[in-house]
Predict the structure.
Amino acid sequence: MNAYDTRRMQDILRPMGYTSVDEPDAADMVILNTCHIREKATDKVFSDLGRIRDHKLEMEKKGQQMVVAVAGCVAQAEGDVILSRAKHVDMVFGPQTYHELPEMLAKITGAYGSARIINTDFPVEQKFDYLPDENTSCGASAFLSIQEGCDKFCTFCVVPYTRGSEYSRDAAAILKEARQMVANGTKDITLLGQNVNAYHGTGTDGKTWGLGRLIRELAEIENLKRIRYSTSHPCDVQDDLIEAHRDVPQLMPHLHLPVQSGSNKILKAMNRKHTIEDYITTLEKFRTAQPDIQFSSDFIIGFPGETDDDFEDTYNLVQKIGFASAYSFKYSPRPGTPAANMTHLIREDIKDARLQRLQSLLFEQALSFNQSFIGHPVEVLFDTQQHKEGQLHGRTRYNTAVYAMGPSRLSGQIVDVIVESAGQMALHGAIRIESDI
Ligand code: 5AD
Ligand code: SF4
């Protein structure tokens, strides 16, 4: 979602004469868009700010200005700390106020050096109503935010505090944005939300639409070839979403449905509001509707109170389900969350050992899923990213990265690639020569 927000900030700043550059060294402004979800991401903010300060000092030596802004969820949660610890930061604003960038910037550049801004409100008006229409290409595969915030209050998670309560955009605005993206060349849209399947926006008929209905409407857009969504909560899976996987060919057969832990005791302590049995039943429903579907998940290892047996439950669940890919993290306490006050913390060395064991199983599963494609053709949508000269980068229907040698005119095209080798993260293959490419 930060990638989406960053793109939208660029849309707001473009009419003011700003263009993005690859390096911060000679920029008029640097915006650090931050993530607060885990401790590691937050720590990175302060080290990045140190590097940016050096660039700003260099610019000042030359008599030039550099506005330094911190955006996103660390700004939201720790705005005061940032301003007091990092004196070179001029602006701090949260994820719900970036549509006010032009006003904030006018204040800063008007009285440069004296005014510092902190803007971490949750404004009553929604930022989406104030964002300009996109009129530039955002690539063959792109994100589109449809829902923000969360009301689930998992005990480990900062999202309900940093992004605010659950909000769904109107379907009309989403459809308009999607049409514009497709008109500019996008073929694969990932619908985003912290709890995306809790989507309940006003439809174009004035009724409330769930995610399944929204996906059906998006599938009517000509040239939108692929639809995905992320991230979902197991409790908010509605039948209309499962049915969309059965009926909508553009909806990709991949579902990221985080389970976090395989132990019912830990799920309860996390306030996940479902059991392992519920989770397995939900996956089975998806499999029945779309037999090709593959699952991915997030896992938190070493949540307070996690015993060896609880961890074994997680390990066994992974063995039983078989995930195409997964993200796994050591638990880190986040300020202001209920779990941060829990006792029975798990020692770091135990967390490390458990994480390593789980990750080797997950890596094995990802590798064997990817290897199952060797010798077969897969449909790849190539984007504009290039790693080596002449090498194209794209994604399969399962969102797995693929590299293949080919001409740049295939960027933005869906092409069959015969898979020759597979790693845990990516496939390598050869483009099948067809008369029409
Ligand atoms: N510690 C470790 N991992 C966390 N996540 C969220 N909060 C924490 C935390 N405090 C993980 C969850 C979530 C993913 C986005 O980040 O697995 O699904
Ligand atoms: Fe955080 Fe997801 Fe739980 Fe919401 S559902 S509190 S975003 S982990």
